[in-house]
Amino acid sequence: MSWRIIVISKRAKLDYQLGYMVVRSDEITKIHLGEISTVLIESTAVSLTTGLLSELAKKKIKVIFCDERRNPISELVNYYGSHDTSNKIRRQIQWAQNIKEAVWTEIVTEKIRKQKELLEYLGKEEAAQLLAEYLKEINWNDESNREGHAAKVYFNALFGLDFTRTSDSLINAALNYGYSIILSSFAREIVANGYITQLGLFHDNIFNQFNLASDLMEPFRILIDKEVEMMTLDKFEHEEKMRIVNVLNYEVKIDGKTQYVNNAIKIYCKSIFDALNEGDSSLINFYRFEL
Fold first, then answer.
1. pTM (predicted TM-score)
2. In the chain, helix, strand, coil percent, each to 5?
3. Residue 1: what pLDDT?
4. For residue 134, how far is the Cα from the chain centroid?
5. Which of 24, 138, 200, 269 is deepest in the core (most CB within 10 A)?
């Protein structure tokens, strides 16, 4: 599996040569495309050839572009991710409502479970106990919105009672940056498996072209939360952003093996699609992290 996350943070020209991405800056660097999972273009002073973009798309390598403030603003999404994309999309449209709700229930449950585990690790026992109670109260499709109640308790325990996810703060800037990187990784896997990102299980915002990625990524948000909680944020610049991007290179347990987060996302997404197509939510493979 590909594993390298390539970050281009200063003026450079990128082109393609005999299976390699060639980075021409102060010096010339060559990276084999077979090793690359993601290319993050952090600087607006970077130029790329269409030949390279075409090869990156063929290899299903995610390319993320940043704006002048070095925040992710867009990405390269393939038209075709699989040889049988048309058939996959037909199946996606026909996924039964009951299996979509069953899978969403499992995802929400796992998200709250991981939030509880992180709070326990940080010694925030009172908040963790509240989340344990919410876990017991989750009903079908989380119709009672235990996820929303858990989020308030969770974020206040992590970042203080005055913290809200809508405030203009360095913590939110870091969280949003990390979530956008995770979301992009999920969008890549959805397309690579032949599905479309617009049709979600629970998320159905008509202005969100990544509804399905927004669904699937939920249990992985905790990896970003943990990293941000460990950071001392008196600024949020290149060094802090690279620390968050590096979360994709952390190791977790999934399917009985140790994998990089990047590869765990692949395995997890494949299991989600198996569950939806087979009508069996027990097929989902969630990751485990060692705190």
1. 0.90
2. 50, 15, 30
3. 57
4. 24
5. 269
256: its two tokens: 């009985």
**Those residues with Cβ within 8 angstroms of residue 274's Cβ, 6 or more apart along the chain or in another chain:** 280, 283
- Asked if residue 96 has pLDDT above 70, the reply is yes
Would you state the torsion angle of the CA atoms of residues 29, 44, 34, 4, taken in this order, to the nearest 10 degrees?
90
Distance between CA 134 and CA 28 in Å, rounded? 54
Report d(CA 208, CA 30) in Å as an integer. 36
Query: In the structure encoding, which two tokens stand for residue 185, read together?
Result: 């990784």
Q: Which two tokens stand for residue 257?
A: 């093996």
Task: Indicate whether 281 pLDDT > 70.
Answer: yes
Question: Distance between CA 65 and CA 7 in Å, rounded?
Answer: 10
Please determine, for residue 69, whether its predicted confidence score (pLDDT) is greater than 90: no
Q: How far apart are the first and last CA of the chain?
A: 25
Report the run of H or E that residue 114 belongs to, with start and end.
helix 97-121
- Among 243, 220, 262, 279, which residue's Cα sits nearest to residue 37? 262
Residue with tokens 């087979």: 278
CA separation for the pair 150, 128 (Å, rounded): 10
Reduce the DSSP state of residue 271 to 3 states and report it: helix
pLDDT at 201 over 70: yes
Distance CA(264)–CA(250), nearest Å, equals 10
